[in-house]
Amino acid sequence: MKRSLRALAAVATGTLLLAGCATGDTGHLDPEISPDLGEVRSSPVATPESDDDEGSDAVETPAPGASGAPANDVEAEFAAAAGSESWYAEVESIDPEGERVLVTTRLEAGDEDAVAVCEAAFEAASATGVNSPTVEVRASDGSTLSLRDTAAGDEACSRAEG
Question: Whole-structure pTM over 0.85, yes or no?
Answer without folding.
Answer: no
